[in-house]
């Protein structure tokens, strides 16, 4: 399915049977959408506190005025634990135990880490000023930095894997550790600078993150696409071949353009056979319902 541009509005699934239930559900839909909007607004208005505020009583009181008193002590204790050891367990405990508050999670912000990185950045023609801008969530600099990191990774991938000097060339190339560190710093910049970049990061950064995680073709996506291709082939075969006609691998190959080996495998697949028979049944029912 081709993605739509702009905001996609989620609508709760409504029953299609019987007709009366559908009509009643459609009448309730505005109520559901209003409730969803209110819930999202309340979520955005939760108390947001940076761990360092816990060390400043005046600042703490200012930031937690929306937090219920019953959760205050729990929040202080759990936030302090997260500040000391920011691991998944402590974060989940904080969020689950005090659901009406959120803690700022950025760890790597500030200029000091950037100064430490500057020699490594210049080695790969990465402008430290661009990085500084990205750390302020300045979207053009985030975009340019993401593109530069991609260029470095593409160049590294093309380096020879054998031959004279290939090991040194690979050592001199950008490290995945540096790329990942800069990615995290940019993501955290959106946490520190929500007013500058509310709910938005450049698409180039999304592409870079996706590549670093699993690439554009992770195994689960390949599995899904293969399943969809098999389903489409079954539906096409149901429309093209007559009921009862023997479908050979050669015929299915010619119809769909898949390889002979894949066609042979699908014809033996129970899921392919099930989809084929189901589509044939639906086509037969639709044909019988048409007025003569």
Rg for CA atoms:
28 Å
Order of helices and strands: HEHHHEHHHHHHHHHH
The total domain count is: 3
Low-confidence stretches: 1-21
**Beta-strand percent range:** under 5%
The number of strands is 2
| Spatial strand sequence of the major β-sheet | 1-2
How many helices? The count is 14
Structure notes:
With 292 residues, the protein is mainly alpha-helical. The protein has 3 domains: 47-103, no CATH class; 111-213, no CATH class; 219-287. It has helices at residues 19-44, 57-63, 69-84, 88-97, 111-123, 128-135, 139-157, 166-172, 176-192, 203-213, 219-240, 249-256, 260-267, 270-289; strands spanning 47-49, 101-103. The chain has a two-stranded parallel sheet with strand order 1-2. Helix 3 runs antiparallel to helix 4 (88-97). The two termini are 35 Å apart. The relative contact order is 0.05. The model is unreliable at 1-21 (pLDDT under 50).
Task: Record keyword descriptors for this entry.
292 residues, mainly alpha, 3 domains, two-stranded parallel sheet, 14 helices, 2% strand
């Amino acid at each position: 399915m081709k993605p739509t541009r702009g905001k996609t509005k989620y609508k709760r699934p409504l029953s299609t049977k019987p007709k009366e239930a559908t009509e009643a559900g459609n009448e309730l839909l505005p109520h559901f959408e209003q409730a969803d909007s209110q819930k999202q607004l309340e979520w955005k208005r939760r108390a947001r506190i940076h761990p360092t505020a816990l060390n400043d009583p005046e600042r703490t009181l200012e930031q937690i005025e929306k937090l219920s008193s019953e959760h205050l002590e729990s929040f202080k204790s759990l936030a302090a634990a997260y500040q000391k050891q920011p691991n998944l367990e402590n974060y989940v405990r904080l969020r689950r135990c005090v659901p009406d508050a959120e803690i700022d999670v950025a760890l790597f912000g500030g200029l000091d880490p950037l100064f430490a990185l500057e020699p490594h950045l210049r080695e790969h023609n990465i402008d430290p000023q661009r990085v500084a801008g990205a750390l302020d969530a300045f979207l053009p600099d985030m975009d340019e930095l993401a593109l530069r990191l991609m260029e470095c990774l593409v160049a590294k991938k093309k380096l020879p894997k054998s031959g004279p000097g290939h090991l040194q060339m690979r050592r001199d190339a950008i490290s995945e550790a540096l790329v990942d560190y800069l990615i995290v710093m940019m993501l955290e910049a959106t946490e520190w600078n929500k007013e500058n970049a509310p709910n938005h990061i450049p698409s180039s950064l999304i592409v870079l993150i996706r590549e670093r995680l699993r690439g554009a073709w992770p195994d689960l996506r390949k599995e899904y696409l293969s399943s969809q291709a098999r389903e489409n082939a079954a539906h096409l075969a149901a429309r093209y071949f007559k009921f009862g006609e023997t479908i050979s691998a050669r015929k299915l190959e010619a119809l769909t353009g898949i390889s002979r080996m894949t066609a042979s495998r699908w014809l033996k697949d129970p899921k392919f056979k099930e989809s084929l028979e189901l589509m044939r049944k639906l086509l037969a029912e639709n044909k019988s319902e048409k007025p003569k």
